[in-house]
Amino acid sequence: MNVINISKQKIFDNKKHIFAYEIVFRDSENQTTGLSCSVKGTSKLIISSIGSTELDKLLGQRTLAFINVDAETLTKGILDVLDNKRFILNILEDIDLTDNVIAKIIQYKKRGFSFSLEHFDSSAQMITKFSRLFNFIDIIKMDIVLSEASNLEKVQAKFKGTRIKLLAQNIETKEDFLKYSQMGFDYLQGYYLDKPEMMEIIGTKEPAQVIILQLIKIIKDNDTTEQLESFIKKQPDLSFKLVQFFNNSKKFDVQVESLTQVITLMGREKLLRWLMVYLYSEASQNPASKTILALAIKRAERMEAEAEPKQKDKAYLAGMFSMLSSIFETDIKELMNHINMDNDITSLVLDKKGIFASSLMRAEAAEKDYLKEIMLANFEKLHTTDLIYTLEYGGVDIDDNKL
């Protein structure tokens, strides 16, 4: 079961009504884990959990949530999948404000995201550091423990009544609550008001390959771009990979502003082909998946070239689908049942029948001829056990008496 631990702490307005939660991700040892860890592949569930219905159950569907963001989170495209009406992006106090980071903050602000500053200590150094950002900040979380009283009062007076809201952080006692409420702080947070509560988020239970196959079905059914975007957004890790691919593509030298933009610029056929590559290379744990992917692309291109003009896209997809059973341990029939694919493609994948069958047979024959050449040329390098495994997996019986 995919589980991640999150601590939540309530944030109140000055009338002691719940305004939002601050959520902090924890690893198995209860250490704070940043969102950017998902970039390194160590915490994919973190980003997945943000789109989870479990989160709605635990926080409420309308309650805002603060999440901490660092430079890597801001610049790697992770945040593109978030609901800008639900999450407040909490900028960590030790962030390195490079030009790239500032540009990203401005970009996300234009897209409707709200920003807060974490552990603002009210010092001259802190004010200088974040001075370029104040036009884009919505909430300053002023740390009453770290701030000197005189500095805190000056900063509070400077921003009071402006567009920027002020939050008193680390309210530990009743006296703290009364004092900072009377000072006119908009929001308050601390152990006196609410202690962080640990909770578990259950990640998606569907295997990655099923999700991608369902997405391929949506594209083939010509659903609207809005429906397509909505489905992709529910799979944050896939969304991140798509945006990453788009950003790395030399053809598209633009800043990503939305998944709709990515889908529109890529076009559905290019998106389909990318998904098939993703299916082979990312959703499979098979160690030979890269080699099989290369073979599948060659097969798909061969079948596409042989097909009638109106059938070329379908022929390409059929060729790619025809090798899925080679890389997944899951029964291919079970996978195909999830998507109810086009009959011509389904017949080819499950029974090697239909309008593309002869093309597939020619492709397989060409592949076998090539692989036979490779095997014979390298026969002396092959281990006996590798050959036995290959034959056994292929259903070829070996006569023990002749060994």
Automatic annotation (TrEMBL):
Residues 1-210 form the EAL domain. It comes from Sulfurimonas gotlandica (strain DSM 19862 / JCM 16533 / GD1). It holds the Pfam family EAL. Residues 205-385 form the HDOD domain. This is Signal transduction c-di-GMP phosphodiesterase, EAL/HD-GYP region.
